[in-house]
Write a structure and sequence with these properties.
Number of strands of chain A: 19
Helix content of chain B: 25-40%
CATH architecture of chain B: Roll
Number of domains of chain A: 2
Number of helices of chain A: 12
Largest sheet of chain B: 6 strands, mixed
Structural class of chain A: alpha+beta
CATH topology of chain B: Nuclear Transport Factor 2, Chain: A
Largest sheet of chain A: 7 strands, antiparallel
Strand content of chain B: 35-45%
Radius of gyration of chain B: 17 Å
CATH class of the largest domain in chain A: Alpha Beta
Number of domains of chain B: 1
Distance between the termini of chain B: 41 Å
Shape of chain B: globular
Oligomer: heterodimer
Helix content of chain A: 10-25%
Radius of gyration of chain A: 23 Å
Structural class of chain B: alpha+beta
Strand order of the largest sheet of chain B: 2-1-6-5-4-3
Strand order of the largest sheet of chain A: 12-18-17-16-15-14-13
CATH class of chain B: Alpha Beta
Order of helices and strands of chain B: HHEHEHEEEEE
């Protein structure tokens, strides 16, 4: 009831970005139904590339997985010729989300309601009683199957990672990502065969953008995450950088592992740094260097729905699936390489303890994000302040900054027409 | 005593003991006594919380994976000292405790579990529904879990799974 009153009380002219540009974000972008609807249309349904799956999940023709872009259900399927199709999981007849299984292998898809049958490209190939029965009923003579395919998306796969777009006029994937971010992408996806190690999913009670921002915000990592700080996995006194593409929509948080914190850094982090906390079983953080260069952490956020995590030896796709203004789901796909030794798999599995719904680090985030939503919803005429590291938007060589969040909202406001 | 009756009685007693072990285990968790909880594991142990999906697909990733008792102790320390979370209460309901097999002094058993979670200020919700798959051994005269895997049915968990289950 309260939500309805709020929505009705906001007129079109109220949807105006506050003074201060990207240094301010109105709370209503996190809480408003109309904004959420517009995001589905302009962002997830618009000219963007959304992550959908890894090729390793659908190695053989007919293999499929179900997923969502924003909140729209889609099926990712490998066609008979080895190519990949992404089609809407919504029957062209009456809208039924016809695919029931999370994954499997299919020669074609049949809607259970009236048995409309689609090939792996989503093309309608058969409907029962099309000509009626005993000259009664049936479809009109001019009913054309070709005009009733399920919606098919534009697909691009790079080094085993599949992206899709509802807008077929979207710019080419490599241009969309930009040269710099593509370099970080190819660092993890260098063409080696990937191997899925497992899935985790959690429904977090906050707006999806708060998750995206969280991975663009290195500032919080040095004050909130006691575990990361104490063990030097990601900390403000490390060599680090925040880089973006030209639009500001994608970003990379880059860090190099450090030893003991300096006295000055320790003073700033004193509330949350535990010098007496040591691991009784160091196997949890038995990190080995596996990528060239000195970076030990690269967290890549690619607009609009994927966080690619390389934290020490844990590699994961963190896919954002929206459900409502106040709820999103985080779908984790942990992976390694087909060439990983048994020891390496064990290491990745142990280090995964830091992540996910029960993660030694991630719990801090999901809890604080839910607390953010609780504080924003009732005060939705207020605004976020983003001035850490200045007011401009440019790459930085440190992590005491909110610059990548400003970059994101500069782009967001443009796409949303706000 | 009649040998058949005696064997039956032995089975009933063992069933009762394993049931009691499970009851005491969840009581420790419901009372938020994590040090007591640790005492239910043998010195060499494996404790995991894994989705049914990963379990059935034979995928190794678990939301919680501790392959030593020291790792469990590290987890408890982190929970007490480093993790941020909203205060909450848990209530475990255990049923269907069943001994599947006894082999080489190891008891292989299972149990259903339903956990209600009450985050303070919020409505109570079901945190997870699943089952334990256990291997129980006798250590220092006590039954201990050498291996306890909790396999939860829904792949989708609520905001966070803070405490062990």
């Amino acid at each position: 009831m309260e939500q309805v009153i709020r929505k009705l009380s906001r007129t079109p002219s109220d949807y105006r970005w506050p003074e201060g540009g990207a240094t301010r974000v109105p709370f209503w972008v996190y809480t408003d139904d109309e904004i959420y609807r517009r995001e589905q249309e302009k962002i997830f349904g618009g000219a963007s590339w959304s992550y959908v799956a890894l090729e390793a999940e659908i190695p053989n023709s007919g293999d499929f997985v179900k997923t969502s872009i924003g909140d729209r259900p889609v099926i990712v399927v490998r066609d008979k010729d080895g190519s990949i199709n992404v089609i809407a999981n919504s029957c062209a007849h009456r809208g039924v989300a016809f695919c029931k299984e999370s994954r499997g292998n299919a020669q074609s898809f049949t809607c259970p309601y009236h048995q409309w049958n689609y090939d792996l490209k989503g093309k309608l190939v058969g409907i029962p009683f099309r000509r009626g029965y005993k000259k009664q009923g049936g479809m009109p003579d001019d009913f054309d199957l070709n005009e009733h395919s399920v919606r098919s998306l534009k697909v691009h796969s790079r080094h085993g990672v599949i992206f899709a777009s509802f807008d077929h006029s979207v710019e080419p994937f490599e241009e969309y990502i930009g040269t710099n971010m593509l370099g970080y992408f190819d660092r993890v996806f260098d063409g080696r065969e990937l191997k899925v190690l497992g899935y985790e999913r959690q429904s977090i009670e906050c707006n999806w953008k708060l998750m995206f921002e969280n991975i663009k915000d290195p500032y919080h990592a040095s004050v909130l995450h006691v575990f990361l700080m104490t063990f030097g996995l990601f900390r403000m006194d490390q060599e680090s950088a925040v880089e973006m593409d030209e639009t500001g929509r994608h970003s990379a948080l880059i860090s190099r592992r450090a030893g003991q914190a300096s006295a000055e850094a320790a003073e700033e982090m004193k509330n949350n740094l535990r010098n007496n906390f040591t691991l009784e079983d160091p196997n949890l953080l038995d990190v080995v260097k596996e990528f060239s260069g000195n970076n030990s952490v690269v967290m890549l956020t690619l607009f609009p729905n994927i966080i690619i995590q390389q934290q020490s030896n844990t590699l994961a796709m963190r896919q954002i699936v929206t459900r409502s203004p106040g709820v999103f789901e985080l779908h984790w796909t942990f992976f390694g390489y087909a060439s990983d030794s048994e020891e390496m798999v064990k290491r990745r599995v142990r280090q995964a303890n830091l992540m996910g719904p029960s993660g030694l680090v991630s719990v801090d985030d999901s809890e604080v994000l839910a607390m953010s939503q609780s504080g924003m919803f009732p005060y939705d005429n207020h605004q976020v302040v983003l001035e850490m590291g200045g007011r401009e938007i440019k790459d930085t060589e440190h992590m005491i900054t909110e610059v990548a969040i400003r970059g994101f909202y500069k782009h967001y406001a443009k796409v949303m027409g706000l | 005593m009649n040998p058949i009756l005696s064997a039956e009685l032995e089975k009933v007693v063992l069933n009762h003991k394993i049931q009691t072990l499970n009851n005491e285990y969840v009581l420790a968790l419901d009372q938020d006594d994590l040090n007591l909880w640790l005492s239910f594991f043998s010195e060499s142990c494996l404790y995991r919380i894994i989705s049914r999906e990963n379990h059935e697909l034979n995928l190794p990733i678990a939301v919680w994976h501790s392959d030593s008792k020291a790792m469990l102790r590290d987890r408890v320390l982190a929970l007490r000292d480093s993790t941020l979370y909203r205060p909450r209460y848990l209530r475990h309901l255990i049923s269907g405790v069943t001994i599947n097999q006894i082999k080489d002094d190891v008891i292989y058993s299972q149990a259903n579990v339903l956990i209600a979670e009450t985050v303070v200020d919020f409505k109570t919700q079901i945190l997870l529904s699943g089952r334990y798959l256990d291997e129980i051994v006798v250590e220092d005269g006590q039954y201990k879990f050498r291996n306890r895997i909790c396999i939860y049915d829904s792949i989708l968990l609520p905001t966070s799974l803070v405490y062990p289950v």
